[in-house]
Amino acid sequence: MRQMNPMDAFMYYLDSPRTPNVITFVNLHDQSTVPGGPLTFRDVLRGMQQRLHLSRAFREKIARVPLDLDHPYWVADPDFDLEFHVRHIALPKPGDWRQLCILVARLASRQLDLSRPPWEMWIVEGLDDVQGVPPGGFAVVLRIHHSAIDGVAGADMLTAISSTSPDAPPPAPAADWRPEGAPSQLRRLRANGELPADSLVALVPVSVRDDRKPDAVGNEIASMAVPLHTDVDDAVERLRRVHRSTQQSKARKKAVGARTLTEMAAAVPGGLMGLAFKAQSGLAELARVQMGPNTSVTNVPGPTVPLYFLGARMVASWGVAPLSDGVGLFHIVSSYTGRLTLSFTADRAMMADPAFYLECMEKSFDELAAAARAHAG
Questions:
Q1: Measured by CB atoms within 10 angstroms of the end CB, which terminus of the chain is less buried, N or C?
Q2: Phi and psi of 121, rounded to 5°?
Q3: What percent of the chain has pLDDT over 70?
Q4: Given strand 73-76, what is the order of strands in its sheet?
């Protein structure tokens, strides 16, 4: 049994039916590399059973303190049921990219059952018409509550249940487990006549993870607010100012100590912290005013070598971040084997045209790339 640290508890209090605070990882796999032929769902269950000991987050559930007088605790679930957490589904024909995105969006908008260990894994078959995935490929959609992990810890969990070769043996078994008791947005806004006069602001998580504790799970993050300088027309000058603002924010965090700021939250009673945030969210929704950042941007470095899930090579990986009231757009920059991926999660009511936003991001990237080439020449 262990108590949530203040940041983990904060992530727990953030969760609501409107804004489930869940991190989602989506990995696409090629079946042709599996030794002995395609995986079956029974193979997946057996493989996951052999790897549950690699992260305690898989088997721990949340135990609340009466009246929320203190932060909740993590306790081992005495009724843990692997088949509740690992689920099987298939896309209908033709099994294309749009169908996969729709399914992932639906899964990402669902709350997790917080009476059980807060994670679920979906094995999605039928990816027969997804670019970059050979016919017969499948996706692994892993959803974990933000109170249990941050992005870095989540990427570490994915690495733990994977291997660096298709025929790697399962990890050594652990001791018997015993349960315990109970800026492209700028182009889009301009096109729709919605760009505010003042600069938009991004919330950027900053890792304060201690390298001396590589096995730690939970949230080891602080955050900083970075102006996006959307009031500057020139793309290169705007990028310079964003870079300058980011460096200044980092310097302020370093001066006070990001970990110090995080630990100060321990002085706030758990119930009070939860009530304060829910009151702020409710006020923002009621008054329809912006009370915080406009968007979030986070960077999650991924594996640098190919990974295999029970022998199936991972060919792509990206994330789906949780949204909150007032912040209906979240960007994740992730990497895998030298390839950088920028994905975003958007509230459908706030952005009804995500395809146009993607087009805007691509044009903005091309604009900055052209400017960089001209500067280098």
A1: C
A2: -125, 130
A3: 80
A4: 2-3, 73-76, 60-63
Pairing state of beta strands 221-227 and 201-207?
antiparallel
Length of the chain: 377
- Give the Cβ contact number of residue 191 at 10 Å: 14
Assess whether 331 carries a catalytic annotation. no
All structural domains of the chain with their residue ranges: 2-376
Span 171-184, average pLDDT: 62
- The residue with greater pLDDT, 369 or 285, is 369
> Cα(316)–Cα(339) distance, rounded to whole angstroms?
9
Q: Active site residue: 146, 229, 243, 375, which one?
A: 146
Q: Are the CB atoms for 146 and 23 separated by under 8 Å?
A: yes
Per-residue pLDDT band for 363 (boundaries 50, 70, 90) equals confident
How much is the pLDDT for 129? 93
Calpha distance 226→199 (Å, rounded): 10
Neighbour count for residue 148 (Cβ, 10 Å): 30
Which tens digit of pLDDT belongs to each residue from 62-121? 998 877 778 899 999 988 999 999 999 999 999 999 999 999 999 999 999 999 999 999
- Name residues whose C-beta falls within 8 Å of residue 116's C-beta, 6 or more positions apart in sequence: 61, 77, 79, 80, 81, 84, 85
- What single-letter amino acid sits at 213? K
Judge if the upstream peptide bond of residue 94 is cis by omega within 30 degrees of 0.
yes
Measured distance CA(164)–CA(158) in Å, rounded: 12
Least confident of 44-53, 145-154, 336-345: 145-154
